[in-house]
Design a protein that fits this description.
The complex is a heterodimer of chains A (287) and B (270). Chain A is mainly α and 287 residues long. Chain A has a single domain, classed as MetI-like (MetI-like fold, Orthogonal Bundle), CATH 1.10.3720. Chain A starts with a helix and ends with a helix. Chain B is mainly α. In chain B, 77% of the residues lie in helices and 0% in strands. The chains are: A mainly alpha (287), B mainly alpha (270). Chains A and B meet through helix 1, helix 3, helix 4, helix 5 and helix 7 of A and helix 1, helix 3, helix 4, helix 5 and helix 6 of B.
Amino acid sequence: MTPTRRWAGLAYVAPLVVFLAALFLVPLVELFRLSFSPVDTYNAALPGFTLNQYKRVFTEPYFYGSLLETLATALLVATLCVVLAYPAAYVLARRSAGAMRTLLFVIVISPLLTSVVVRTYGWVVLLSGNGVVNRLLVATGLRDQPARLLTSYPSVVIAVTHVLLPFAIIPLTTALGGLDHNLHRASQTLGAGPVRTFLRVTVPLSLPGVVTGALIVFALAMGIYITPLLVGGVTQPLAGIRVYDQVETVFNYPVAAALSFALLALTLLSTTLLAGAFRIWERRLHG
Amino acid sequence: MAERRRRFGYDRAVGLLGGAFATAVFLFLIAPLVVLVVSSFNRDASMAFPPSGLSLRWYAEVLGSPDWQVSFRLSGVLVLLVVPTTVVIGTLAAYGLAQGSFPGRRLLQGLALSPLMVPEIITALGLLYYFHGVGLINTVTGLWLAHSLVALPFVVRAVMVSAAQLDPALERAATSLGAGRVRVFFTVTLPLLRPGIIAGAILAAVTSLGEVAVTALVAGANTTTVPLRIFSAVQYQLDPSMAAVSTLLMAASVVVMVIADRFARISEAL
């Protein structure tokens, strides 16, 4: 663009800014104001200002417990996703273009292209009383009778990990695919075997991809609510589900808003801390 | 020599183990979808797997049901509204962000992608409260705007990949040859952005077809999209008709993708 057209770039962005201001920023600001509104006995918002909602969120275990539980779950899911994503991304990055690579790639992005409801419903079928997993457990003699897998915490972790796994695989595949193959050859001519080369050359160089994937998965896991709701039920102690419950059954919007913003603050804070910790770790490794 | 052979065997074993692990991960990714498709052809009303026999009765039931027909039509209408809206706004913005160098560009880029960073429950709750005030709850317009908001960052991101690779010399050449600004945009810029635009359109279509997190809060009895109807049904009952609808929804996404993949590689945009 010529200098005058550089400024014209702003005109191209204008519709987006208007759209996001009207449908994203204004609703968030309104919601933030609502979180400070007093409520009457029917949980309807009244004019005025109160910190009561935030007091409830940070003193009632029902609310702050769900925030801690969400944090722990998001960390667990992010760890699982990185561990599971690594071998898949490694295979994907090393395969040369062809039918097999396309097939594997379609498998990896298939969760992104199907509705979250569809994916989660697949897990409901797999984990139900007479589902595949239970039949396998009984057939192999690991259990005498079908286990109650749905509405359990492990099933929530499994389903959420499944839904978010592609977000870890894609950046990791990009990072692994961009590695200079000469480095592997150099390492091997210097006498390191494939395993040692993998651990001392490939893994350290792919860390940026690992970090990106882990942070995306973590942030998404903090706010996810449809998947745990379908697999685990409304009693799961996760913040997203508690917000939904306050809205759909208690109709207390101000408390739901306060809990949402506590969740948002926790998400931003912990993502920033994690990103900082990763950066220090990387600098040490390469320093 | 013996030492070397031993090490070779060890490396090979580790390699095989890694391959097996990767295979397990790919199976984990695809398993729920495969189970769902197979269950939809079950002859019985149970979700037992594998099915006792095959039939198409659940597809007939779903396609013949007036409730589901209304939902199919609504989901289709929403895709037709959301894709053009997000593609126009998103393409213009991605072009401006990638090629312009005005102050605050990075800030606006952050803003453009910010709906991806905010937990979905907060976006949903914000729209619910806001739509209550302006009377857009349980309306097609409300869902159109909500789906566009959710899909927009994907379109911006996809088009920005193409826009960043755009060579400004081509536009300058067209201008020096006498083409006006509008003509340059439509005959030079847009064709060069095509791969990104197509990828963005697919992502927008697929997002709208599958959206539940926000829809669940802002839709109502008159505006039940296909995935929302599955969502409410799955909470209370478990029968193969839901698997049949899910399979149809998945097939719709695959069709959108296959058609568009003929024109662009969407893998680069993700």
